[in-house]
Each structure stands twice: as C-alpha cells, then as structure tokens.
C-alpha cells in the first residue's frame, strides 16, 4: 500500500500524461494537413507517454522496486520522436505535399483547394 502523497503524485502524472495524449490525438484527427498533423504525435503525445512512464517510475520507486528500464525507455522515446518527425517533414517537403492556407512556412508549396 502506497502513502497517500505517493498515490497523489502517481495519479497527477497519469492525469497530466493522459491529457497530453488526448490533446495529441485530437490534434492528429482535427488538423487539416500533414504538416499541422505532424505536431500532434511529436509534441503532445510524446509528453503524454513521458508522463505515463514517469508515473510508472514513481509508482515502482515508491514500492521499492525501482528499475532503470523505464528511464531508458523514456530517454529513447524523447530522443527518437524529434528525429522521426524531422525525417517525415523532410520526406513531405521532397514530395511537395499540398498544405492548407493556414499553415505557416514556405510559400512555394501548392495549397489545398477547398
């Protein structure tokens, strides 16, 4: 049984992580073009998964079963998510995917017509 403060910390981390993941999923669903949709999974969803993994680290640390594996997973995720997003954006630029007029950035790309 965990101390109430430890339970509060774990619950807060789970809640914050879940909110970030929800925002990322809604952004992925609702945003109009590839470049805008790229921010959902790479920014907020990465923070959301990080919050859930940190909640797991906190839970097992408070129980006395601390493990280095969860911290390594978190570090790997925070290192690989920006690299994969950069590679996806470069591929989309190479293919000259159309963009929504509300997307900020280079003006040479063709626009999506409504």
Automatic annotation (TrEMBL):
It comes from the Bacteria. InterPro entries: PhaG_MnhG_YufB (IPR005133). The chain crosses the membrane at residues 6-32, 44-62, 68-89. Coiled coil: none annotated. Pfam families: PhaG_MnhG_YufB. It comes from Cupriavidus necator (strain ATCC 17699 / DSM 428 / KCTC 22496 / NCIMB 10442 / H16 / Stanier 337). The keyword Transmembrane applies. GO terms for molecular function: sodium:proton antiporter activity. Keywords: Membrane, Transmembrane, Transmembrane helix. This is Multisubunit Na+/H+ antiporter, MnhG subunit. PANTHER family: ANTIPORTER SUBUNIT MNHG2-RELATED (PTHR34703). The keyword Membrane applies.
């Amino acid at each position: 049984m965990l101390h109430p403060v430890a339970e509060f910390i774990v619950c807060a981390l789970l809640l914050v992580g879940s909110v970030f993941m929800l925002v990322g999923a809604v952004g992925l669903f609702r945003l109009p073009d590839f470049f805008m949709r790229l921010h959902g999974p790479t920014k907020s969803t990465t923070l959301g998964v990080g919050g859930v993994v940190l909640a797991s680290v906190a839970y097992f640390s408070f129980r006395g079963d601390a493990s280095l594996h969860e911290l390594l997973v978190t570090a790997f995720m925070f290192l690989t998510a920006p690299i994969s997003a950069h590679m996806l954006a470069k591929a989309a630029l190479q293919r000259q995917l159309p963009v929504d007029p509300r997307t900020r950035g280079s003006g040479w790309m063709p626009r999506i017509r409504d």
